[in-house]
# Entry
Amino acid sequence: MVTWEKFYVSIFELAKKYIGGRGLGTKLYMDEVDPQVDPFAAENKIVFINGPLSGTATPTGGRYMVVTKSPLTGCIASSNSGGEWGAYLKYAGYDAIIVEGKASLPVYLNIDEEKAEILPALDLWGKYTSETSDLLIEKHPGAKVLTIGPAGEKLSQMAAIMNEKDRAAGRSGVGAVMGSKNLKAITVKGNLRPEIARPDGLKAVTKECRTLLKENGVTGGGLPTYGTAVLVNIINEHGVYPTKNFQGGQDPDAEAVSGETLTEKYLIKRNPCHHCPIGCGRWVKSDKSPDGIGGPEYETLWVFAGDLGIDDMEVVIDANYWCNELGIDTISAGATLAAAMELYQRGYITDEMLDDEVILKFGNADSVVHWLKKMGNREGFGDLLARGSYRLADFFGVPEYSMSVKKQDLPAYDPRGIQGMGLQYATSNRGGCHVRGYLISPEILGLPEKLDRFDLAGKEVWAKVFQDLTAVIDSTGLCLFTSFALGAKEYADMLNETLGTDWTAEDVLLAGERIWNLEKLFNLEAGISSEEDTLPPRFLEEEMPDGPTKGWVHKLDELLPLYYKERGWDEDGIPTEERLEKLGLL
Amino acid sequence: MAIKIKLFANFREGRGKIVEMDYTPGMTGQDVIDSLGITAPEIAALIVDGVDGKVDAMLAVPVKEDGYMAIFPPVAGG
# Structure
């Protein structure tokens, strides 16, 4: 039994506290769902929500957020995606969709400015994401399509939600929650435009922000020219580019998968998201299509190259393609293969377990796509791989070989040489993640200023500020990359002209802190204690064996108490009543 | 003896990936970038013989014989 209910509620008062996107989505979700819910139960809900700036002319204003309980981590999941879909949800006349219950047969939602309908999707079930998108666009010309692939249908804990074929709300297994509801896709279309409180003011501040982005060396230079892949060399040169499941920190052959190589040999054109003046997305050569396909990001390049001991750009482009088709998160998929290869190296996984199929061994390029397909379709040993590296390693009784935090696989930066980033990994509310507070900026890239990456002094302050500001940006509907050129004041200005509010930079940062604490409260109520604010033992006990980070471990035990204090939490990492009252959360 | 300069992103334009430069006693990172026609404000990150730090400070560090430098313009991602 499926039903569709359209209702209008005033969320403006809530938006004053939680902005939109990640913040408002989390608030709406928490008001309706018991944190102890089974992520795959019909009682769980999934929220698709954009921010106040999605669909406006603001730079990058087109992103949406998916909020639910993660089947990978058990934590709050808020997974973000670009492309066009978020803006078109707004153009159809909606700020958010909340999906609850479970359809008895596969369905999809079709939404435009005149109607919203639940339609059968039996003919789409089992299909890859690009074919699903093509079939739905044929049925609904002009629509933007969000869909899951086979991995989401089969409830893989690393299943992503794809839109425009190559954009992903990738992390935390949100695609599997869609799959658990038999919801294959959501199409959106429309020509409505959001009401703007002060149109002339928004025009002026938008122009100002676009100028700042254009004149900035990163957003106006490095990212448009080379994409996020430009990070391969700089991270590698600092000796924090994880190799072979984080067993090392420097790869002598990383140049083969660098942004410079991608640009020189494979780039066809830039592939920007909605209203984005940066255009870091890549469109690259591939044997999958004569016109090219969506290209890999930095994290994807690293995970299918350095982390697997393979340095072949074409393997990475292929792996990225298959992850998109299957609807799986590239980071978790690659990291799980890396963990499997280390388990093979150490004798836990044997040839017999793999049924004499392609051996999961570091450096074996043939194994990548072979096992990605098995993983996405949950076939044979791939069924175990589809659960992510933590559950895989735990199956063999050695969870320490999973490079994850709160069961979510870590991204492309070894925390032993980036002390602030390691703190941020450990305390991230959605588990191992780089986009909850990107301390790589000051610790490696020298932005906005260069910090000593090994020094602990003040890192708890930087972590809190970056986490809070990120929560703000994730709630606006804009891209995090704007923060290389813009600050809290610019975000407040854009929100004020759009909503008619009068927030200061301090007000929006306070909202960010409120959102961070709200997420923490969810996790605590879901049974995720602060004991899980930690790192895999490798980073705490094993010295980095090579490169410029040689000899270092992460000093989490020194940083964590300082961080809790900076947050106004008690020594067990629980928000105090005093701080919650200040944030309006009591 | 020579030192090796590794260049990245747009710093490679017209210079190549790696430049080898004759070592002279007392030379600093500043001397190296002067020779390459790169100015300090254009640099976002700098590594000298495996050590990184604030650009201005690193430019004052004497370069080692047979050593290397890695020079980066503003780049980012995630």
